[in-house]
Amino acid sequence: MAQVVVVVAVGLRALSQAPQTFTCGKGGKTLPTTALSSSVGSGVILLMRYTLCICVAAMLAGCSGSQPPIGAPGAMPQTSAIATHADRGKSWVPNGSAETPGGKTKGRLFVDVATASIVEIFSNGGPTSSPQGLLQAPGWNKIGAITNGISYPNGNWVDKDGNLYVANVYSGSTAAITEYDRSGSLKFTYSSGMVYPSAVATDINGNVFEADWFTGVTEYRQGSNTVVANCPQLGGGQRGIAVDAQGDVFASYSTASGGAIEEYTGGLAGCPGTTLSVSLGAPGGMAIDKNANLVVCDETNATVDVIDPPYSEVSGHLGGRGPIFGYTIPVAVAINKENTRAYVTDYGGEVIDVFAYPTGSPFAKVDFKGYGPPTGAVDGSNYVARSTQ
Fold first, then answer.
1. All structural domains of the chain
2. Would the pTM of this model clear 0.85, i.e. be above it?
């Protein structure tokens, strides 16, 4: 079975290069590209509001066909971010120095690079005075990489014990989430029921949650490949996932008119879903902070939205807005354990924007030009929601 590739290109060129059909599975079933693109979701269409768009041709195990080349978005001008997210009275004590390592994963930044099928590891550095915030900024140094079990990584997460999880669109013979211990050794692989994993998260008890473009949201016990609960696909497929201190699960997805976030109160059992009333573009990666605020990447509007409970409206933005003074395509966001740093993955700009949190003040930019566009970034001391911190 051949691997099916992701196509990312500038403008409408990507659509003209897409294959017309894909032959899938042992039965040789032929699917038109249009069927795949409609299943992948309206986020593809919505992103065409900008001259820069994402065309996801397919990433399904067992599919083969005429495959267009992998393309990368053109470099966009990088300027210092605009802090538009108000503090809202929350306390924050600036650190001003690199994170203090504790264990193998703390003090490290794990970055997915899908086109290279690798997770790059960088040391967490200090603030930079440069608007570009290049890798040469103080302390932001490449210190290692993970390749075992990694294939088209599409999102990552670190749990309360420092274990790293990576959502792989194609790992070996199937889509999978791979789990690594603090030393970076492959610990476990979750794959049951997965087709196109787009995000992964854990709760305080170590339960693993997967958001999937095609199969909805799925829960596993840590170290078990048995599906505990699954809630079906919504809209164009679930793309981001977060779990709060009460065990409520939030999943983002695209629709024909934009996008929405579904809240599964108490967890996935029975699929007690409620659609939040907040209005969004095409929401993608998301995180939740210690004050239960949702932080959501809006890919079509090129913003990172902050949504306070009860999640009825956008209450602020993290960083700048739009491709000139802010993001190009923000696809993932993570917050460190202390809630003093936020890491935004800008796929289109090929950069990780680091902010002081919750003020939104620019801290550093980790430039990935030359490495490949990043698809996810998480701090080694990632925040996992709990009732007490």
1. 7-65 (no CATH), 108-379 (2.120.10.30)
2. no
